[in-house]
Amino acid sequence: MTLRLYSYWRSTSSWRVRIALALKGLEYQYAAVDLLGGEQWSEAHGARNPTHQVPVLEVEADGQPLRRLLQSMAIIEWLDEVHPSPPLLPPTADGRARVRALAELVNSGIQPMQNAIVLKLLREKVPGWDRSWAQGAIAGGLAALELAVGDGGAGRFCHGDAPGLADCYLVPQLYSARRFGVDLAGLPRLLRIEAACTVLPAFQAAHPDRQPDAPAPATRST
Ligand SMILES: N[C@@H](CCC(=O)N[C@@H](CS)C(=O)NCC(=O)O)C(=O)O
Q1: What is the pTM of this model?
Q2: CA-CA distances (angstroms) from residue 38 to 4, 23, 46, 47, 156?
Q3: Pocket of ligand 1 (CB under 6 A)
């Protein structure tokens, strides 16, 4: 089976999938989609994903038609079902509901508020307003996540002592928060979990700076 991930180095949604692939030790082909250069709007990418977004995971297997998986949550859950070891979701229904809720706080609660298309529309309506909007949305969402992980279910990671689905969402979101200049001082649990993640080789391999389409630091836009 060949896996091909359509990704952009700094896309937090692609990064989630890269972490999951790395945690599972799965080899994959990296196919860069240059979001800054507008490549997502090409006909070719539109055929892969009607939303023109990344990530897209293509799956090629002998004798089977090409499959395209969309949406980081669906992709990571598919990976977990098809490649169950190590598991990214806990064994109990209660545990899975907790982990999915933590991930959704980021996936549907924070990231859609600060994604590039939303900020562009805001900027066009009220110049200069996009950054403070994003800061407010991220700060509010992360404050809720800090409380949610403090319910007793966290260990070294968001759920227990092994990295899992919720951690795939947390780490990229904290990176994004820093890019937007959000004050993270009131989030000690999230920062402690992030520190436990970032020492792991899987999280290091998935980092934007390590991706083939990452530009040299001196040539990066903010
Ligand atoms: N809910 C989607 C979100 C995907 C998403 O927002 N992708 C962004 C990058 S993080 C994107 O492709 N944006 C296209 C653009 O900036 O034009 C997922 O989890 O996969």
Answers
A1: 0.97
A2: 20, 30, 12, 15, 39
A3: 11-13, 35, 40, 53-55, 71-73, 107, 115-117
